[in-house]
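Q: Got a minute? One more chain.
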Amino acid sequence: MQISLNSVTVKEKWGLPEVIEGCARHGIPGISPWRDVLGAMGVDRAAKQIRDAGLTVTGLCRGGMFPAADQAGRDAAIEDNRRAIAEAHAIGAKCLVVLGGGLPPGSKDLPGAREMLREGLARILPDARAAGVTLALEPLHPMTCADRSVLSTLGQALDLCDEFGAGMGIALDVYHVWWDPQLAPLIQRAGSRIAAFHVCDWKVPTTDTVFDRGIPGEGCIDIPAIRRMVEAQGYDSFAEVEILSKHWWQQDPETVLPLLKERHASAV
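A: Always. Here it is, folded:
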């Protein structure tokens, strides 16, 4: 399984031009930009530089975030997702990673927010199919349910994939699913719908449940075991390193990238 670098891993030090150049120079064959750095560089310029560097775009982060307090907010989310689909198509991304979004401000209606997610997917799926872009649902750890994602389990994500069919897939991030006692049968159920595989580690103790991820081998997740489960379903693409970490963001990417390659060989 080859390594891909998610741009958020070095977000404080490098913009997308530096990430592209750094991946090429350090022999990292895959890249996955976030939309903020893609927008800052410009989609057309980024697409050309990525092609010229010979990199594979393993995903674009991120779409989704559908729940909103009113219809205007929900419509705005739909239009933003349509732009994200177009961006993913333009840069040749294998998928658009889709998050559920949290509860609307002041709301306690979790079933209602999950229905907004479902409705949002139904509205953008025709655009994704037309563009040939897979919508890769990424369930996030339940600790993020209120503010980041009402899509909390792999089982929920697969239910939506079952409902909507073609054009849907799964972005499997070990940080968010490693704890699930049903992980093995759920990965088997996912089968060929695994569109992206994200790796990092859960540090013990962790100082921030969102921004203290570890590099592979730094924490308690048995990443090789999960990788084997994924590979058993026929996934033979990239392991995408996505590290949201206040600590690692302050380090020099010129030292971080070689370390990631080393850990990819030993801990992924």
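A: The CA atoms of residues 67 and 115 lie 9 Å apart.
Q: Perfect, thanks.
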